[in-house]
Amino acid sequence: xxxxxxxxxxxxxxxxxxxxxxxxxxxxxxxxxxxxxxxxxxxxxxxxxxxxxxxxxxxxxxxxxxxxxxxxxxxxxxxxxxxxxxxxxxxxxxxxxxxxxxxxxxxxxxxxxxxxxxxxxxxxxxxxxxxxxxxxxxxxxxxxxxxxxxxxxxxxxxxxxxxxxxxxxxxxxxxxxxxxxxxxxxxxxxxxxxxxxxxxxxxxxxxxxxxxxxxxxxxxxxxxxxxxxxxxxxxxxxxxxxxxxxxxxxxxxxxxxxxxxxxxxxxxxxxxxxxxxxxxxxxxxxxxxxxxxxxxxxxxxxxxxxxxxxxxxxxxxxxxxxxxxxxxxxxxxxxxxxxxxxxxxxxxxxxxxxxxxxxxxxxxxxxxxxxxxxxxxxxxxxxxxxxxxxxxxxxxxxx
Length: 399
Ligand SMILES: *[C@@H]1O[C@H](CO)[C@@H](O)[C@H](O)[C@H]1NC(C)=O
Ligand SMILES: *[C@@H]1O[C@H](CO)[C@@H](O)[C@H](O)[C@H]1NC(C)=O
Known about the structure:
The radius of gyration is 20 Å and the shape is globular. 23% of the residues lie in helices and 21% in strands. It has a single domain, classed as Alpha/Beta hydrolase fold, catalytic domain (Rossmann fold, 3-Layer(aba) Sandwich), CATH 3.40.50.1820. The strands form 4 sheets. The protein has an 11-stranded mixed beta sheet, with helices on both faces. The model is unreliable at 1-25, 370-380 and 385-399 (pLDDT under 50). The chain is of the alpha/beta class and 399 residues long. The protein is built from 8 helices and 17 strands. The chain has helices spanning 2-16, 109-116, 118-125, 168-182, 197-208, 277-287, 356-364, 375-389; strands at residues 32-40, 49-50, 52-53, 71-72, 78-86, 96-102, 128-132, 136-137, 153-154, 185-195, 215-219, 253-258, 295-299, 303-308, 322-327, 393-394, 397-398. One 2-acetamido-2-deoxy-beta-D-glucopyranose (NAG) is lined by residues 47, 49-50, 181-182. One 2-acetamido-2-deoxy-beta-D-glucopyranose (NAG) binds next to α7.
């Protein structure tokens, strides 16, 4: 009964959204969930700093101060936020892995936390999760952006899904740097994953943050470097921020996609210009120096995974695996989270093998052997990207 009630409250929240803006909905976990608000400078060498609390306005009586939680940034810095989940019982002085779990279009950090149930995976396996929040107001089912104050966002993953070329890669780099400075993170075991727009973004992170992460697991999102249709994009994302995927290091990829997905269709979408899953996987095989012939390593009535792990000639020392898991489940029109661990039961695919445990086991097989986030590399890479893309928007201004 309580479970039912709690699920209906969550459904109501997802539909009405208003109830999740200022407070983090309690996910069923035992650790600590905190919202961080950071000021991100346009200067790539300046670290993220926590935003400062805005004093209560004089006209607001003190007994109403509980309604006042606003923080701000100065110097034209951009305010960005994320939810950090730290499980209980981490051993002091031990560095643990970090998973960055990126939300979908028209969602936010808290919804991703509830929807994927990854806090529980962190509890069971002792790692930290950070759920970054997008910046652009999501353009949803119409051509118009979400109304002001509605906490539904998107990430600029290149061809999808931002109406401005916001520097989200810059934000994610500084967020991870902040996590490394403030928590005991094993910098060789930082991973990226995400759903839908977050899956597109996970692909972009694998392309542009291969000096930071050790492996990436996009769900229902493809590598989408440029929006190429001549017609205006139906959601207004036209030419948000084209990029070229040219990672410095090989990043192992686990791509999970539902064959029945109606939102990010398996075979691509003419309307939105989305490439197909096989195009996206083909690109990764090339980028990762593995052969096009894979082997089925897991198969049952709902799921089939194919692993591409054989290096091409002469690349035995410079390759990474690509794995594609295809699910057949019609929940949520096929646009669902794999496995049934999340708490948004109505958005879960009905398979039970390729799930959070599977994603985590994939991550644990991979480790990066180089040190920390490199500010210098960040600066150079961003200059290159700026040169390539022409311009980047930072906090509403063009750089
Ligand atoms: C996080 O680390 C930064 C240094 O990069 C420091 O300025 C900041 O105060 C730390 N924040 C917290 C909450 O400890
Ligand atoms: C994932 O699936 C495996 C195999 O069915 C199962 O043992 C495991 O408990 C599942 N994990 C979660 C988080 O549901």
